[in-house]
Amino acid sequence: MRAPRRLQRRIVRYIVSVVVVSLLASAGALLLSKQRSLVSSLESSARTFSAMVSLPLAKDVELFRQTGHQVLRQQLGRFARLNHDLVRLQVLNVDGVLVMDARVKDGQVELEAGERGGQAPRLRDEELIGPVEALSLSAKRVAYSGRGRVYRVVAPAVEEWGRHTYTLVAYFSYARVSQELLRAGLVTGVFLAIGVLVAYAASALLARTITGGVEKLQAGVQRVAADRFDERVEVDSGDEIQELAESFNVMADRLQASIAALKDAYVRLESLDQSKRNLLANVSHELRTPLTALRGYLELLGDGQLGELVPGMDRAVEVCQRNVGRLTTRIEELVEFARIDRDGAALPMGTVDLATLLHGVVETLWPRLEQKNLFCSLNIPMDLPVVRANGESLERVFLNLLDNAIKFTPQGGSIRVRARKLRLHERDGVLSEVTDTGVGIPADQLQAVFDRFYQVDQSSRRRFGGMGLGLALVHRAIEIHGGSVWLESREGRGSTFSVWLPLERPGQLDAGLPAVDSAQSATLDGTAPMGDAGRSEA
């Protein structure tokens, strides 16, 4: 059930991601709108406050210059309580001289400048002089030492009859805006967290609803994969997953029917194959008797024991003997193949000295080697270990391999037979190789040469003779002995047939051994030659 769980997590992750992004965007837009609203409200309130208090404050400044600053401080305190964003008030006369400078901090007013006790400073800021000369209210955001940016309002105090005596410069802090935004952000964060939790719960429920059908479908697929072909998937979701489940059930029905048909066909094929084997064995045995009689009478004719031959008949008898010999060889191959194919597992096993066996095989075929003027070399160590095998079967194997090498190697070529101890995949054994300089085998046909009745080139049946059973017999015999056989060949340069036999016959045949040789090599039973690093020679 891992796949549906991963799908659930993916669906939850996608939905929650979309919800979080949407909530964050909404929260950001809300906070931005809140900020703009707070700033606009603060600035509007600041302008209204400045316009409202400019004239009363101008009158109080006149009073301050005559009676003292105590009354002015009290009046400034009342003004400060009207607008909590106020941080500083300055009053300039018509000449731009600072006649009053008051700072507001935590509701307390501190007077820092005036005409009493010394020369008051003159403000020459062009941005202040312009509104003063125009007798109009102006406002602007400016930098302020220790408070970042503040909102500055310049409000000339003009009496009813038009007399202008003083100008008010008021500074308002944005601190309250920041505090309000912080509180709004905290509230928004809480609601955002709640929204994410709700979205997670809803998406998990939705994902479980969506993947429920997928889980059932996956379970059905796993049951079918476990050869339970009668299992079906029941999904009642009313959506595409239900349609997929129904399609899967139809596929399972067809698969079950196809498998049943294949089983029936396999049984029939096995029966036909067994019938073919029986026919092959019976025909081979039935042909043996007449061939033996025919060969005997031909020998008697050739020796003149049945009477003197008419001139020219000796040539005909020789041709008949040669063809009867070829036919006898083919019949013996059929008989041997049928015997191994039928009784292979019951072959009697014993100790076989491969060195002696290989020497005997070469001596048997030595006349054919001399006939084609082929050079044959043997490289067999004296301490080659013996193997447990069926001697007659192994002799047939190497006779076939050497016979093939002689058959497909042109006159003047060479054949090499060698054997050595080889440890292959943690098992000790003996590797025997038959290498020739013959015509070679095309790369696209290497895998098929060990099939029954297969010949590389159909024209070779007429050119070289044979039925294509020799290598099939080799493969089957080595398979029965728990060994491996493989082929390496390059067209036009020759071939090497390798036979590996274990020193101790295993209970089961090896399978799954990796293949080697990059270019053109065919491997039987999954075993392949290893590089020098993987060999252990005696």
Radius of gyration: 54 Å
Q: Mean of the pLDDT scores?
A: 76
Proportion of helical residues: 40-55%
Write out the CATH superfamily name of the largest domain. Histidine kinase-like ATPase, C-terminal domain
- Portion of residues in beta strands equals 15-25%
Return the CATH architecture of the largest domain. Answer: 2-Layer Sandwich
- Residue windows where pLDDT falls under 50 for at least 5 positions: 506-538
Give the strand order, joined by hyphens, for the main sheet.
3-2-1-6-5-4
How many angstroms separate the termini?
54 Å
Main β sheet profile: 6 strands, antiparallel
**Helix and strand sequence:** HHEEEHEEEHHHEHHEEHEEHHEEE
What is the tally of helical segments? 11
Please tell me what the overall shape is: rod-shaped
CATH-assigned fold name of the largest domain: Heat Shock Protein 90
Number of domains: 3
Which CATH class of the largest domain is shown? Alpha Beta
Care to give the gist of this entry?
By secondary structure, this protein is of the alpha+beta class. The protein is built from eleven helices and 14 strands. A hairpin with a 3-residue loop joins β12 and β13.
Describe the fold and architecture.
The chain is an alpha+beta fold and 538 residues long. 53% of the residues lie in helices and 19% in strands. It has eleven helices and 14 strands. The strands form three sheets. A six-stranded antiparallel beta sheet has the order 3-2-1-6-5-4, sandwiched between helices. The radius of gyration is 54 Å and the shape is rod-shaped.
